[in-house]
Amino acid sequence: MNLISVRLITDDVDRLVSFYERVTGIIADRPTPSFAELRTPNGTLAIGSTQTVALFGPGSASPAANRSAIVEFIVEDVDALFAALGDDVDVTVVQSPTLMPWGNRSLLLRDPDGTLVNVFTPVTPEARVKFADIAR
User: Fold this and answer.
1) Is residue 117 within 8 Å of 66, Cβ to Cβ?
2) What's the pTM?
3) Which among 12, 105, 115, 119 has the fewest CB atoms less than 10 Å away?
4) Closest by Cα among 113, 126, 96 to 13
5) Collapsing DSSP states into helix, strand and coil, what is residue 133?
6) 10-residue stretch averages of pLDDT, the chain, 136 residues long
7) What is the C-alpha separation between 111 and 104, in angstroms, rounded?
8) Superfamily of domain 5-55+66-130
9) What is the maximum alpha-carbon separation in the chain?
C-alpha cells in the first residue's frame, strides 16, 4: 500500500488553491474548476469543491471542519519561506519557525479553511538522516 494523496473539501477551491500555491511554490493542476491537485515527488494534495462530495456520498465530507489533521510539507529552508511570505494577509501564522523536540524547524500556518499546515526543515543530524531520501 502507498499513500497517494490527501484531499481537502472546500467551498472556495480558487482561494484554497491560491493559498497552497503561494506556500508551496507548486502550480496546481486544474482538470476542472471544482478540483485541483498540487503534486509533489512524494504525494499529492488534492482540493475538491463541496460539489464533488456527492460523488463520495452526500454528506460524507464537510468543508472547513478539520481540527484533527495537519498537512505537512518539507522544504529546504523554512526560514527563507517564512521571510518570503512576509506580511501576506492571506497567510495566517500560528507559530513562526521553531525548533521542535524531534529535530525539525517548523512553521505552522492555517489555511483559509482553518486546516493546520506545518512547513518544516529537518535541522538536527537525526532529523536529516530520517528525511535524507525525501525530495524537497
Assistant:
1) no
2) 0.92
3) 12
4) 113
5) coil
6) 94 97 96 97 95 87 90 96 87 95 97 96 96 83
7) 21
8) 2,3-Dihydroxybiphenyl 1,2-Dioxygenase, domain 1 (3.10.180.10)
9) 47
